[in-house]
Structure formats: C-alpha cells, structure tokens
Amino acid sequence: MSSVRAASSGAMSSGGDGAAGGERAGGPALRLLLTEPARGFADLATLPLAAPWLAFAPRGDGHGVLVLPGLLATDTSTGLLRQFLRRLGYQVRGWRLGRNLGPTSEVLDELPGMLSALASETGRPISVIGWSLGGIYAREMARRYPGLVRRVITLGSPFALTDSRQSHADRAYQRRARLHASGRVPTREQVREPIAVPSTAVYSRRDGIVSWQACIEPESDLHQNVEVRCAHLGFGVDPATLWLIADRLAVPAGERSQFRPPAGLRTMYPARDPS
C-alpha cells in the first residue's frame, strides 16, 4: 500500500501533481495553499443549504463501504461523509487506526484484514473510499485483492505523483518516514498503474495541497475522472462530491457506467477535458 511517494525511497508520500501527462513539477499555487482552511470551512458551510437536495441522492443496495482518511487525519475527518452514507443505507466503516501517519507496518498489516472482515460480514465485495493518501491505500488494496473490492473512489489522491514538489504535504510525510514499513512500500511507477476494478478519481483544480494533475489517470471502461470545485480539506463535506459518491456507489455490482450529473446539478461539475 502507499500514499503517494516520499522523496526517494517508496511510493507513498503526501499528495502531488504528476498526472495523466506528468507535465508539471510544482505544487498548487501559494494562494490556494494559504486559503485551504478558510475554503474548507466554506465547503462545510454549504452543507446545510444542500441538505434538501442531498436527501434525494441515489441509493444503492446497502453493500459495505470502507472509508480511509488522509495523511495526519483520523476517522473524525470522514465522520460527516460516513454519516451521509449510513443514511443512504450502506454498511460503513472507518479505518479505526487512529491518526494516519503513512504506510506503517500496522497500517499495512491491518488494512487487508479490515477489507476481508467487512466483505465477510456483508457477504459480498465492498467499496473503498479514500481521501488523499487514503485513496492510494484504497487503490493498492484493490490491486492486491480485486475479488474483495467492488469499487474504488479517490478524493484528491495523488496516485499519479511524479515529483515530490507536486505536493505541499510531502515534508510532513517525509518527517515521518522513519515510521514507515521499509521495503514494503510500492514504487511511484507501481502506484501509477491502473487497477482492475471500477474506479472514480475525484479531483479539484482548487486543491491547495496536491496538484490536481497528480490525482487523475487516462480514462477507460473501468476508470473515470470527475472534477468538482472544492478545497482539498473540503472533499469530505462538499455537496457535489457527496452526490457523486452516492451516484457511484449506487451503480449495480458488475455494471460499468459513467457518471452523468442530473440536469439541475450540472453546473457543479465543470465540463472540461482534464488534460
């Protein structure tokens, strides 16, 4: 498993900008970084206003959903997202490993068990949602255990990182590198490889932590990139992201379909080619 990639050894890191084309080497603009907290709170503030129409979000079959937090975050950060999914009828679990300090031995040992336990409890493959570094964990679990994973949804996850400068969180990741499981972390090249289960990469050009280009990959029958307009810290509460997640989880098992927002919500999803 991985997060993004650290400076030189391993693949997990913090976040970044490499991407489908790997054009840029710099991270998001400083103005985006400095305004991240305020914009994240602004995303949260829109949630009560969106509650009436979010009540009509698509509902699926109630399968299991595992939600993984980003670097230095805990299950508290995904609380509202998990509450929203429970109201839609899903059997939701947080990761229950405290603060996400990166790919430690505990994380790499415990995540497969979580995946297997929830799949066994619900009697079928589960979906995995990962925010930032958590999304890289999600993809790596799907890569290793495709039979247990129904769908992966990443939220601002820099799995296509090509340069540590593409992430403003890389220093925080590197400072904890001594805690990481040496020799067990995938390389950047391995992390960038597509996975064999349906996946959706949610990204934002307003992300102030990781470059949005590092959060997408070429689209295919199994993969779609969808742009929203929120801060990196807002993915878990952004109404457009919540609707998108509900829509993707509601896709029947084994069916492949692209996300198409309803007419009344189309303005919330920029229609442009992520290139």
Task: Describe it.
Helix content is 30%, strand content 12%. It has a six-stranded parallel beta sheet, with helices on both faces. With 275 residues, the protein is an alpha/beta fold. The radius of gyration is 17 Å and the shape is globular. Mean pLDDT is 91; it is low at 1-10 and 14-24. Helix 6 links the parallel strand 3 (126-131) and strand 4. The protein has a single domain, classed as Rossmann fold (3-Layer(aba) Sandwich). The longest helix is centred in the middle third of the chain and has 18 residues, at 105-122.
* Unreliable residue stretches: 1-10, 14-24
Mean pLDDT level: 91
**Helix proportion range:** 25-40%
Q: Which of globular, elongated, flat, extended, rod-shaped describes the shape?
A: globular
Count of runs of 4 or more consecutive helical residues: 9
- The CATH class, by name, is Alpha Beta
Report the strand count. Answer: 6
CATH 4th-level superfamily? Alpha/Beta hydrolase fold, catalytic domain
Secondary-structure element pattern, one letter each: HHHEHEHEHEHHEEH
Distance between the termini: 27 Å
Count of the domains = 1
Oligomer category: single chain
Q: Main β-sheet, in a few words? A: 6 strands, parallel
Which structural class fits the helix and strand makeup? alpha/beta
Portion in beta strands: 5-15%
CATH topology: Rossmann fold
**CATH hierarchy: architecture:** 3-Layer(aba) Sandwich
Strand order of the largest sheet: 2-1-3-4-5-6
Instruction: Report the C-alpha radius of gyration, rounded.
Output: 17 Å
